[in-house]
């Protein structure tokens, strides 16, 4: 069974038998996956050692109508697209940096049935550099350098005697918080960027004065939860569980 056939099969389960009805008259997810595969093919870059690097982050812009129709399935659809694209890349024996990420956005100005796919290499770590034999291919768009991942040992003593505070994701990633404001979101203006389609571009802000961290929701679409309760603003305590989109972050304090 091909990648596309497996993808269609999973989609049928995703919409619980309403497959034809849900996708009738809107852009079909299989078309999107086809376009993602073409983007990967078009952006191949040969690395030292003969390996082939392709993008691992795909942003899908849908027309306003298609986006509204598919909104209830957006998060699950993005996950299925990412899984199928990862399978396709694996079958081609291509290389990516990190996980395959898919984000579904509303594309203003696009007609119904039209969509746009933007692909890029996404390292997920501002300090990360390609391995020694992974020289940046000539003519390939520069790797995005988003903030939000630790730049040093997570338990390094903070400057000025401030408390060492950090967020820990459910997959074990650690995000130390510096004194000042940290914006969590998906957009370019976020300090801590997370690849979660349920998170707004500027979702929430953390203000750290060296002793206390204040969490403030920035008018996000899906809201911010702390220990299961929706909040607009609150001071965090050690062990608090922050839920934004499908991402859970645990607040930790050392010292």
Overall description:
Helix 1 (3-14) runs antiparallel to helix 5 and helix 3 crosses helix 5. The chain has helices at 3-14, 19-23, 29-42, 64-70, 74-91; strands at residues 45-46, 52-53, 57-62, 101-106, 115-120, 164-169, 174-176, 180-185, 192-193, 204-208, 213-217, 224-226, 229-231, 233-235, 241-244, 247-254. By secondary structure, it is α+β, with helices and mostly antiparallel strands. A hairpin with a 4-residue loop joins strand 10 (204-208) and strand 11 (213-217). Mean pLDDT is 78; it is low at 125-161. The strands form 4 sheets. A 6-stranded antiparallel β-sheet has the order 7-6-16-15-12-13, with no helix packed on it.
Tags for this model:
255 residues; alpha+beta; six-stranded antiparallel β-sheet; five-stranded mixed β-sheet; 5 helices; 22% helix; globular
Structure class: alpha+beta
**What is the CA-CA span between the terminal residues?**
55 Å
Q: How do the strands line up in the largest sheet?
A: 7-6-16-15-12-13
- Tell me the strand percentage band: 25-35%
Rg over C-alpha atoms, rounded to the nearest angstrom? 20 Å
Order of helices and strands: HHHEEEHHEEEEEEEEEEEEE
Number of β-strand runs: 16
| Molecular shape | globular
Tally of helical segments: 5
pLDDT averaged residue by residue: 78
Biggest beta-sheet profile = 6 strands, antiparallel
